[in-house]
């Protein structure tokens, strides 16, 4: 199956999509968003420095039609989602979002009902467009680099007037192996200091539930859940988090969830491998002390 990857110039993201592409056939071609050589070796590689997804649709439609691509892969990121929908409309192509599994018989899986179930689909139409959830596929080992050629053609000219990079501290949530996350049960933004202290010892990232973000206790960039960051750490420590379905959807691929909540009926305990029914103000300081003693 002739496949095209559309992704920003990021080795891990490209590697994950190459893995998916190889499930369906040979190494895909790529349209890299950015400048410079593309990580990996490809038969055809293109690039564009266009920063607005909407401006990519017209030239991308032409590229897919002229190249007779049968499958288009994008990461399930804000940009990938922004491109996938309009691209599907223009091509009359089906769009399957948030894919978490794929097999050579052209079936893919994706979560439904807020992550409470997984549905399997068969791709029977070409072209088809998939957005792939991050960290569900091991990145392919990308040997060498490829010098891309410019993507030709122009599309809708939406002008980006300005942009401001969001300030973030510490380890990015999407790359973190350990995440310490707080919810509305923390009681106040000041109490997140405890979580940051523990995260520093564990070399972990700090996250938050939507409830904590809505209260203004944590930055929106730290929100974990269906409408925030989708994470897949080895260990996810949920403190004062009730376990709403949208939050659980964001940690569906966490390998080990440890929950601390004084409500023994909290839904988070159904997802947790280890649970502590207690006030976090008693548990977290004790954990910090124990971790310091182990250092």
From TrEMBL:
Residues 3-170 form the Electron transfer flavoprotein alpha/beta-subunit N-terminal domain. Gene3D superfamilies: HUPs, TPP-binding domain. InterPro entries: DHS-like_NAD/FAD-binding_dom, ETF_a/b_N, ETF_a/FixB, ETF_asu_C, Rossmann-like_a/b/a_fold. GO terms for molecular function: electron transfer activity; flavin adenine dinucleotide binding. GO terms for biological process: fatty acid beta-oxidation using acyl-CoA dehydrogenase. FAD binds at residues 184, 209-210, 223-227, 240-247, 261. Keywords: Electron transport, FAD, Flavoprotein, Transport. Binds 1 FAD per dimer. Pfam families: ETF, ETF_alpha. SMART domains: ETF (SM00893). Its cofactor is FAD. The keyword Membrane does not apply. PANTHER family: ELECTRON TRANSFER FLAVOPROTEIN ALPHA (PTHR43153), ELECTRON TRANSFER FLAVOPROTEIN SUBUNIT ALPHA, MITOCHONDRIAL (PTHR43153:SF1). Belongs to the ETF alpha-subunit/FixB family. This is Electron transfer flavoprotein subunit beta.
């Amino acid at each position: 199956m002739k496949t095209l990857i559309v992704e920003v110039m990021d080795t891990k993201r490209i590697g994950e999509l190459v893995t998916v592409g190889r499930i369906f056939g040979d190494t895909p071609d790529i349209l890299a968003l950015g400048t410079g050589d593309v990580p990996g070796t490809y038969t055809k590689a293109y690039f564009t420095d266009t920063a607005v997804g909407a401006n990519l649709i017209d030239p991308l439609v032409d590229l897919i039609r002229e190249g007779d691509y049968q499958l288009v892969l994008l990461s399930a990121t804000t940009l990938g989602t922004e491109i996938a929908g309009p691209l599907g409309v223009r091509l009359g192509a089906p769009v399957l979002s948030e894919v978490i599994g794929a097999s050579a018989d052209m079936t893919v899986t994706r979560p439904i009902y807020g992550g409470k179930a997984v549905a399997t689909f068969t791709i029977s139409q070409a072209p088809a467009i998939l957005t792939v959830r991050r960290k569900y596929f091991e990145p392919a080992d990308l040997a060498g680099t490829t010098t891309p050629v410019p993507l030709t053609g122009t599309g809708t000219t939406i002008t980006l007037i300005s942009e401001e990079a969001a300030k973030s501290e510490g380890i990015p949530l999407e790359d973190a192996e350990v995440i310490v996350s707080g919810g509305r049960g923390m009681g106040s933004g000041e109490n997140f200091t405890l979580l940051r202290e523990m995260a520093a010892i564990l070399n972990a990232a700090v996250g938050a539930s939507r409830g904590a973000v809505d209260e203004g206790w944590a930055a929106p960039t730290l929100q974990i859940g269906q409408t925030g960051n989708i994470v897949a750490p080895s260990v996810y420590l949920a403190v004062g988090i009730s376990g709403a379905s949208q939050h659980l959807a964001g940690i569906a691929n966490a390998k080990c969830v440890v929950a601390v909540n004084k409500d023994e009926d909290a839904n988070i305990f159904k997802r947790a491998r280890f649970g502590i029914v207690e006030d976090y103000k008693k548990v977290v300081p004790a954990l910090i002390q124990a971790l310091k003693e182990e250092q």
